[in-house]
Amino acid sequence: MELFLATFSALFSVVNPFGAMPVFLTLTHDDTPERRNEQARKACFYMVGILVTFFFIGQYVLNFFGVRIHDLRIAGGLMIMKAGFDLLNTKTGGRKISKTAVADSIHRNDISFAPLAMPMLSGPGAIAVSISMFKPNLHTLDFALIIAGIALVAILSYAILYFSSSLMRFMGRAGLEALSKIMGFIVLAIGVNFIVSSVIALMKM
User: Fold this and answer.
1) What number of other Cβ atoms are within 10 A of residue 29's Cβ?
2) 24 near 142, Cβ under 8 Å?
3) Residue 29 DSSP class
4) What digits encode the pLDDT tens for the residues 153-181?
5) What span, in angstroms and rounded, lies between the C-alpha atoms of 197 and 183?
6) Hey, CA dihedral for 78, 80, 84, 85, is it positive or negative?
7) Closest CA to 17 of 144, 154, 166, 114
């Protein structure tokens, strides 16, 4: 259960589906509620597929390029820290996607994979967290708990996107900015933990 909670808490903070709401609503403003919900549902399915795939094959990709897991955790920690700083200083909900990408995506029929699933929900930080959860000594139950943690993040992300219109009306821009700053502080702490734990592990090698 501890592994499940660790996976969920780390991923949910980094994925930050609340930050995806403004862009999601912008990209789907002409869609029917049914179409909007379909896009959110497909995006969350894609997110699970992306994160689970990187969880299982990430170590082999790192080994192929001669990159150690601690190197990845340090690099991932730096990216996560940057995302945390952006969330703390943002006034737009914390989701980084260029205006050009938004303009291009508005004219696309399907935005569920790009840019919604990747990079908005399962970006480099989430992928780094997912890869770092893999260890050679994990048991079948551990794998199941980690995948369940990823699935729960996807379920909650879908629920947040499903109710995004109501949440935006309830929270307003001010509420979303306050929530983004809270999430940013948590994300920043996760990034620091990644770097510190990896440096300690490297010093013991």
Assistant:
1) 10
2) no
3) T
4) 999 999 999 999 999 888 888 888 888 88
5) 21
6) positive
7) 154
Sign of the torsion angle spanned by Cα atoms 52, 5, 84, 193 = negative
Q: Are 49 and 192 in contact (CB under 8 A)?
A: no
- Residue written as token pair 């996807």: 154
Task: Quote the CA–CA distance of 202 and 68 in Å, as a whole number.
Answer: 10
The radius of gyration of the chain's CA atoms, rounded to the nearest angstrom, is 17
The pLDDT-based confidence of 66 (bands split at 50, 70, 90) is: very high
**pTM to 2 decimals?**
0.90
Predicted confidence (pLDDT) at residue 96 exceeds the cutoff of 70:
no
Rounded CA-CA distance 160/49 in Å is: 19
Residues 6+ apart with CB under 8 A from 108: none
